[in-house]
């Protein structure tokens, strides 16, 4: 995705704490290992943390913040590889790295109180009505 002409990564996670954010979707152990050996942060990140009926947030993490944490803790601690014999569906940013980048002083964030409002909406009827027009 490009924002104002520059590539940006957008990630969404749902849960009490931000965790399990995928850097790449793969279950192949060889590809995951190659990813660990070659990947480094190169795009700004928008992270949306949805915590239904509670507090979450939206974070803007510049690439230099990610790179600084990556350099500080190293690739082995920044990237969490999938466990062999499981099906986690991807390589994740570690909880330690995620906490560090979201709390960095150069990361911008807004807190969001996520609530579920009940609305009367029939998607099928809406589409039928639109097709009739």
Short description:
InterPro entries: ThaI (IPR029128), ThaI_sf (IPR038374). The chain contains five helices and eight strands. The protein is of the alpha+beta class and 133 residues long.
Question: Any overview of this molecule?
Answer:
- With 133 residues, this protein is α+β, with helices and mostly antiparallel strands.
- It has a single domain (2-132), classed as ECO RV Endonuclease, Chain A.
- 33% of the residues lie in helices and 31% in strands.
- The protein contains five helices and eight strands, in the order βββαββααββαβα.
- The chain has helices at 29-38, 63-73, 75-78, 95-103, 123-132; strands spanning 2-3, 6-14, 22-24, 44-50, 54-61, 79-80, 91-93, 108-114.
- It has a five-stranded mixed β-sheet with strand order 1-2-4-5-8. A three-stranded antiparallel β-sheet has the order 3-7-6.
- Strand 4 (44-50) and strand 5 form a beta hairpin.
- The longest helix has 11 residues, at 63-73.
- The protein is globular, with a radius of gyration of 18 Å.
- The two termini are 33 Å apart.
- The mean pLDDT is 92.
């Amino acid at each position: 995705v490009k924002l104002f002409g520059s590539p940006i990564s957008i990630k969404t996670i749902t849960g009490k704490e931000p965790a399990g954010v995928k850097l790449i979707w793969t279950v192949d152990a060889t590809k995951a290992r190659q990813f660990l050996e070659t990947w480094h942060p190169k795009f700004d990140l928008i992270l949306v943390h949805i915590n239904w009926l509670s507090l979450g947030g939206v974070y803007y993490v510049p690439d230099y913040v990610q790179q600084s944490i990556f350099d500080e803790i190293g690739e082995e601690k920044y990237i969490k590889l999938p466990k062999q014999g499981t099906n986690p569906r991807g390589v994740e940013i570690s909880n330690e790295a995620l906490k560090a980048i979201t709390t960095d002083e150069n990361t911008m964030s807004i807190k969001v109180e996520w609530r579920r409002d009940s609305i009367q909406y029939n998607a099928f009827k809406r589409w039928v009505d639109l097709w009739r027009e």
